[in-house]
Amino acid sequence: MTQVMPILVGGEWRRGGGDVYASRYPADDSVTAELAAATAADADEAIRVADAAWRRSEWRDLAPHARAAILYRIGALIRERAEELAQLQRRDNGKPIGETRALVASAAGTFQFFAAACETLEETLTPPRGDYLTMSIHEPLGVVAAITPWNSPIASEAQKLAPALAAGNAVVVKPAEVTPLAALELGRICGEAGVPKGVVSVLPGKGSIVGDAIVRHPLVKKVSFTGGTTTGRALAAIAAQKLMPVTLELGGKSPTIVFEDADLDHAVNGVLFGIFSSSGESCIAGARLFVHEAIRAEFLERLLAKAAALRVGDPADPRTQMGPLVTAKHRESIERYVQLGRDEGGRVLAGGERPRGGIYDAGWFYKPTILDGLPNSARVCQEEIFGPVLVALAFRDEEELLAQANDSVYGLAAGIWTRDYKRAWRVARRLEAGTVWINTYKQFSISTPFTGIKQSGLGIEKGRLGILQYKHQKSLYWGLNAQPLPWAD
Ligand code: NAD
Question: Whose CA is nearest to atom 14 of ligand 1?
Answer without folding.
Answer: 207
